[in-house]
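Quick one: co-fold with FE2/S2 (inorganic) cluster.
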Amino acid sequence: MFFRKSQSEAAAAQGAAARAGSAITVAMTVNGKAVSADVDPRTLLVHYVRDGLRLTGTHVGCDTSQCGACVVHLDGRAIKSCTVLAASCDGAKVTTIEGLAQDGKLHPMQEAFREHHGLQCGFCTPGMIMAAVDIVNRKGGTVDEATIRHELEGNICRCTGYHNIVAAVRAGAAAMGGMRQAAE
Ligand code: FES
Ligand code: FES
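Sure, here it is.
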């Protein structure tokens, strides 16, 4: 798991604040906007994002790091926000599903999920898409099906729509790769 501050630093700050019964001030950039708040040191990033910032596209499915519904990007890497303390993200850049679309236009991965019916109830979809974008960022636009399935092991779809999800990720990956080539 990726942490902006070391776990020991965050734990020390947390412990000190908890002993003092006080809140910790955290400042970060979320979807390109600077935000700052006093939070309980035990606040998880997912709760800060959902309850503090009202960005409710990030879901809580299990709270125990198993389902992937809470995936966001922290400094450009996908993480499960139910396992990260908000206090450990001080100074970090966070992107949630709300930050993917630009100028009213869906991100290519969002468009691919829409086009390929990669969702049923939609509960897992924000986490799936954030994980998928990270997969493409790391593996490239030609990532194969076996790799996608392996990489998505940490994301659970209770509607079991995996076939279409994988098809959507492949299409989204190709579109993202095409965008990169066009920019080069
Ligand atoms: Fe974070 Fe399930 S809510 S992994
Ligand atoms: Fe319903 Fe995945 S679409 S949980």
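If it helps, Confidence is low (pLDDT under 50) at residues 1-5.
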